[in-house]
Amino acid sequence: MTDFRFARRSQIIGKSVYDHAPGVILLSVGSAYPGTLPNLTAEADEAAGQFVAQSMQYGPLMGLDDLRDSVVSYLAEDGVVCSRDNVLITNGAKHATDLVARTFLEPGDRMIVSAPTYMTTLQSLRTHGANFLAIPQDDEGMRTDILERRLETLAANGEQQPKLLFDVPDFHNPTGITMSLKRREKLIELAERFDFVIIEDDPYRRIRFEGESIPSLKSLDRSGVVVMVGTVSKILAPGIRIGWAIGEHEIVRRMAMQKSDGGSCPFTQRIVTSVMQSGKLIEHIGVVRDRMRLHRDAMIEALAEHLPDAKVRRPEGGYFLWAELPEGVSGDALAAKAVEHGVEVGSGRLCFPEDDPGNFLRFSYSLVEPDTIREGARRLGSAYRDMAHAA
Amino acid sequence: MTDFRFARRSQIIGKSVYDHAPGVILLSVGSAYPGTLPNLTAEADEAAGQFVAQSMQYGPLMGLDDLRDSVVSYLAEDGVVCSRDNVLITNGAKHATDLVARTFLEPGDRMIVSAPTYMTTLQSLRTHGANFLAIPQDDEGMRTDILERRLETLAANGEQQPKLLFDVPDFHNPTGITMSLKRREKLIELAERFDFVIIEDDPYRRIRFEGESIPSLKSLDRSGVVVMVGTVSKILAPGIRIGWAIGEHEIVRRMAMQKSDGGSCPFTQRIVTSVMQSGKLIEHIGVVRDRMRLHRDAMIEALAEHLPDAKVRRPEGGYFLWAELPEGVSGDALAAKAVEHGVEVGSGRLCFPEDDPGNFLRFSYSLVEPDTIREGARRLGSAYRDMAHAA
Prior knowledge:
The structure is a homodimer.
Chain A (H helix, E strand, L loop, with lengths): L24 E2 L14 H8 L3 H4 L9 H12 L10 E4 L2 H12 L5 E6 L3 H8 L4 E8 L2 E2 L1 H13 L7 E4 L13 H14 L2 E5 L15 H4 L5 E6 L11 E4 L2 H9 L8 H12 L2 H27 L4 E2 L7 E5 L6 H10 L2 E2 L1 E2 L12 E5 L5 H21 L1
Helix pairs in contact in A: 1-10, 3-10, 4-5, 4-9, 11-13, 12-13
């Protein structure tokens, strides 16, 4: 075998979220709960039959017009005013984020992210050579005061300003934090003033268990600085691989040209169109939301019982939980020990663009039943005691 | 609206193959003939019903094991010996090529391509900053003697050697040429000697109308220097968006990590698995092949009648035709004039990585009926006479 001359970016190999030890309880992945996977046989039949000429042929790079119109209506219910020209259909939200990065970033360009942030997107952004400007969070979301000072310092020193910002304002992955209205307004003001584009990652917004919804960044955007990315993965089914990006036409058009796969699948686009048009999507969102609320409650209670030393933040929606371990307790070590005890949780390390504090864990409660969540937490608790005992 | 700071690569905006003047006959795009689009309602029903837990959930980055095994069997019939570990499922062949490029190329790296070559891949490779080493072709395919001399000169001068080679050995897009066995063997020898990886683009191999099949590069590869990329787009349906890459495990594993979309759709993967396992794919290939032979014959005859000044190469298979116009006749000008006359053909210009000779046209005969092909050729003939008259 030849000694292959790989590119530097191909050395960036994270652990695949699909590799798991057999027999362990997964409290680590944001997969769909199998009990709420939708039955789409009628829509699939229609797409493969009545719509065969469209669904089996090459589709337009921007996506099917019918689906783009359905996305416009879906977002209008949530206060986002846009037209078909602002909608690009993608293979999910992560794909949309990657296309924004391909459209704006040169290797070495600065990009703002929260610390911590969504680990898989972080990994994908690294392949574009992004130079991260990491901004901490508190209960109101990204610390825009700190961001402002950092940007002012860059300006004063004549240094290159960031081109992009990535954040998850609703039920942040991994922390579960929802950004306050004031911070959202400030973020847009900063984007306008310092000339960067905001990627608003919105997979979970409709999965709100309680409390009042806060306007999305895109609905507050008057100058075109926000690209909102969404997906049906968390509200319908991850296997469909359909998402979207909403932004200025000039941006989404260029993003389309960065697609490397001939455009998203028209067959699954047709299925999603039907599900949106019939109202089945809205109905399904209610089912998923009610189910995820049960899971969150079970997880919060079980962690309080079995891992009382951890500070756990209670999210008002979404799929994820974030826990701070006592100082000096290693998230990496506990995650490794947990697998020995039959449960997989995420170490917080992968979520930090730079300096990992070392003592965080990421959980997802989406995939398994409340009873299994409780059993997983019990196993985690025994791993924790095991580790404390050894130390 | 902000004056957006786009990346250089986002300036590379070709004409989308999906934008067409209304009412024109398309002799320009390799879309499927609507009359042979498959009825996949049974397979879709099975995927959405019986296999719901797999098809609606996140799938493995490498692709479904069942599909990877089916691809192994499909390729074994054609002399390619590989195992599941060598198979990566992608969103079509172009996507697979892009992933190879992401895995190997740094901006500015050299890459070998034939001149002319597949225009859409050329455009995608440009976004990676590839520095093309363009090698001419003759009736036996890429001129490996010229390539060898170029590589030897680079070596003698201590210059960087190319990392990749991209070619379409069977029914080359756009020329229709099939590479001889001698050239294939020489190409592999050069890859081994000069340490580059060959991307063998194989969308059309099974669409052979006549003559003996020549072993694929991958079936001749003993040292792992070939990555073969394939797709169901030209043998089943473009709308399914499923393809594959076959290569050393270390290569395809790194390619998987370059995916930006969470992996290919498990729902359509399940459908393709069924179509492969049942033998329906092989049956369908026969139907498409017989239909495309009729189209090629109609196109060759019609061009001989209506554009007798052009030298047209008769391909033994595939979807494309290449025509040389008399010296001094502009392919760009004729393609533009043709639209006025109600037919769209491709100017050869987009297929050349560098110096375009200027007098070539690319045709595809796949999409429209033989009668429509004849009418399109008639319109092209009148555009040609119109242009000659004006000159």
